């Protein structure tokens, strides 16, 4: 799942974020079970000693995860030695399966990127009613720049509190109404106005919309001409603690070059802790709790603050590239039409030079020797990559072979803002109007069999009808994510396809476990979020209960098998925000 907590699961987004995109119209029949045929294949070079079977199974799944999440792969950071090991492993596996290169004659799609590493000695200086205050990197705030410049200075920029930083015409809501923030520093809350106020009538109420995502807030602040933007962190609104923000924003950050992503960019953007915000606001005669109440009511007006912000942010800048890895299985009858299975291969790398983010300088480096500083990313997202490899193997042994083509896409830079999938959508190897559907695998639960299966963004597209039939053969049901306020729908790579109109499915294991019910399921999910998500502790565990994830993979394979064997073009459900983009995408040329 995504890094600068883009990462992995709610939804309905605004029409303003929709772009041009893809195809669809119909429903489904229950798919056949995954194939059970054929002799084991020879082991890939990066997995010595393991003979892979033709069926989707726990042993093969575990082998892929163990390799990808090993210390040898160093946390799979883009642009690192860990990337090289990862993409070579994936290429070897795709070749072992007999899959064709998915980008012309290559398995690789080069994704240009700018690597920016902020100097963490940077201090955000505040003039609060003439009194000097300082916020320190890591403990009080984290900031970065998307400009690609080695030095960015903000000098005495007026602070303005802009509520939730939302400009949503269709909601008749504009936190920027009546105020000019050009050159100023905007301060705002994370999530939607309906979340903290618990008002079900505002936006989607508890369920996060795209306006609630931190990514949108920085995008809108840039469109408004702000010099800097700071989001006030709170664990409930963000759905993760400050440690996740700190781990994600420290060290190298990646972005697409401006020429590949021409949207406006902020000179400085970042987060401040809730404690730092509360103290700052109190010094200005404002109460944080009262502002939560005020900002969550229609008609809120931005509040100029009697404070100015200054920072001299130095960064190390380098232009690099990373790679999406793409493989293709040609359809027997309609090879120009494709179903895409997708997972991101990247994670947070090795933070040895950061001392695990517990400190800075010599003390931090001394601590590093005693700390595990590799962010192995076993669940996030070696499980998803292992999943598409297992599904790919099933398709290569399927009899009869699929009528439509299958594309298996392992994307990079998800943890940096879904950049690899964003680049692919802008440069697809199968035209988007020939892409039938996208099935995304991200952070697959390994907590045992469940009576249900979770669909993130439940109620979105007709792909759910096919999945419902598939899990029905397993005696299971579908349901929405338990915490729609966490915004997971916007935190994984399918979202870029959805914005383009391509019907996208993001589903994984359920909460109602056979062993322990929903209490056990919720406990396991909470434990992962609090103890392992975006932490070095996200490592392969031979004690995982993998029978449930294998059942999930069988179900997701079944969705693709159904679509690859018929002529259906699924659509978004009526009223869905992405339906218009899909219908525009599917219009005949010249219309």
Describe the 3D structure.
28% of the residues lie in helices and 23% in strands. With 591 residues, it is α/β, with parallel strands linked by helices. It has a 17-stranded mixed sheet that branches. The protein is globular, with a radius of gyration of 23 Å. The two termini are 38 Å apart. Residues 3-45 and 355-362 have low confidence and may be disordered.
- Taken from the alpha-carbon principal axes, the silhouette is globular
Overall number of strands: 21
Total helices: the number is: 16
Uncertain segments are 3-45, 355-362
Strand content: 15-25%
- CA radius of gyration: 23 Å
Largest sheet: 17 strands, mixed
Q: Give the class from helix and strand content and strand pairing.
A: alpha/beta
Helix content, binned percent:
25-40%
Distance between the termini: 38 Å
Let me know the average pLDDT.
Answer: 89
Structure summarized in a few sentences:
By secondary structure, this protein is an alpha/beta fold. The chain has 16 helices and 21 strands. Helix 10 packs across helix 15.
SSE blueprint and pairings:
Blueprint: H1 58-68, H2 81-96, E1 100-101, E2 108-118, E3 123-128, E4 131-136, E5 141-144, E6 151-161, E7 167-168, E8 173-174, E9 185-189, H3 193-197, H4 214-223, E10 228-232, H5 235-238, H6 242-249, E11 252-255, E12 268-272, H7 274-283, H8 288-295, E13 303-329, E14 334-344, E15 349-350, H9 361-368, E16 374-375, H10 378-396, E17 404-411, H11 419-426, E18 435-440, E19 452-455, H12 463-472, E20 477-480, H13 494-499, E21 504-509, H14 517-531, H15 547-564, H16 579-585
Parallel strand pairs: 6-9, 9-10, 10-12, 14-17, 14-18, 18-21, 19-20
Antiparallel strand pairs: 1-13, 2-11, 2-13, 3-4, 3-13, 5-12, 6-13, 7-8, 13-17, 15-16, 19-21
Helix pairs in contact: 1-10, 10-15, 12-15
């Amino acid at each position: 799942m995504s890094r600068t907590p883009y990462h992995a699961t709610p939804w309905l987004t605004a029409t303003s974020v929709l772009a041009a995109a893809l195809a669809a119209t119909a429903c489904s029949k229950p798919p056949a079970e995954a194939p059970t045929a054929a002799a084991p294949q020879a082991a890939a070079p990066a997995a010595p000693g393991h003979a892979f079977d033709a069926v989707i199974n726990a042993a093969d799944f575990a082998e892929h995860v163990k390799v990808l999440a090993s210390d040898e792969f160093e946390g799979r950071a883009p642009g690192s030695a860990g990337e090289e090991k990862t993409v070579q492993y994936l290429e070897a596996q795709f070749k072992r399966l007999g899959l064709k290169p998915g980008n012309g004659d290559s398995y690789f799609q080069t994704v240009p990127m700018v690597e920016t590493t902020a100097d963490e000695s940077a201090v955000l200086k505040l003039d609060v009613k003439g009194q000097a205050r300082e916020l320190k990197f890591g403990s009080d705030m984290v900031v970065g720049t998307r400009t690609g410049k080695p030095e960015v200075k903000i000098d005495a920029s007026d602070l303005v509190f802009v509520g939730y930083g939302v400009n949503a015409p269709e909601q008749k809501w504009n936190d920027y109404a009546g105020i000019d923030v050009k050159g100023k520093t905007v301060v705002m809350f994370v999530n939607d106005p309906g979340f903290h106020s618990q008002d079900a009538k505002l936006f989607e109420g508890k369920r996060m919309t795209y306006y609630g995502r931190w990514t949108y807030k920085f995008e809108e602040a840039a469109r408004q001409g702000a010099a800097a933007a700071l989001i006030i962190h709170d664990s409930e609104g963000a759905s993760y603690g400050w440690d996740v923000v700190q781990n994600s924003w420290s060290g190298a950050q990646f972005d697409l070059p401006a020429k590949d992503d021409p949207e406006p960019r902020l000179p400085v953007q970042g987060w401040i802790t809730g404690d730092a915000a509360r103290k700052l606001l109190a010094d200005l005669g404002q109460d944080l709790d009262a502002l939560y109440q005020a900002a969550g009511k229609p008609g809120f007006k931005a509040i100029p603050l009697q404070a100015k912000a200054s920072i001299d942010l130095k960064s190390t800048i380098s232009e690099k590239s990373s790679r999406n890895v793409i493989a293709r299985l040609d359809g027997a009858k309609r090879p120009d039409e494709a179903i895409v299975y997708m997972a991101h291969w990247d994670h947070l790398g090795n933070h040895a030079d950061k001392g695990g983010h517990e400190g800075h300088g010599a003390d931090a480096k001394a601590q590093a020797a005693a700390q595990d500083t590799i962010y192995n990313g076993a669940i996030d997202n070696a499980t998803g990559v292992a999943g598409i490899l297992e599904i790919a193997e099933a398709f290569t042994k399927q009899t009869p072979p699929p009528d439509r083509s299958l594309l298996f896409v392992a994307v990079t830079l998800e943890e940096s803002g879904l950049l690899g999938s964003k680049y692919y959508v802008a440069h697809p190897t199968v035209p988007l109007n020939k892409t039938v559907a996208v099935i995304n695998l991200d952070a697959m639960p390994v907590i045992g069999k469940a009576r249900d299966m979770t669909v993130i963004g439940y109620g979105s597209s007709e792909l759910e009808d096919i999945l419902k039939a598939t899990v029905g053969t397993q005696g299971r049901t579908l349901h929405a994510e338990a915490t729609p306020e966490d915004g997971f729908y916007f935190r994984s790579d399918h979202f870029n396809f959805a914005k383009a109109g391509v019907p996208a499915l993001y589903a994984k294991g359920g909460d109602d476990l056979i062993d322990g019910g929903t209490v056990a399921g919720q406990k396991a999910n909470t434990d992962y979020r609090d103890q392992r998500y975006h932490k070095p502790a996200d490592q392969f565990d031979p004690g995982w209960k993998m029978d449930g994830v294998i059942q999930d993979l069988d179900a997701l394979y079944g969705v693709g098998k159904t679509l690859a064997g018929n002529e259906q073009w699924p659509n978004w459900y009526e009223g869905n925000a992405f339906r218009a983009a899909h219908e525009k995408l599917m219009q005949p040329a010249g219309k």
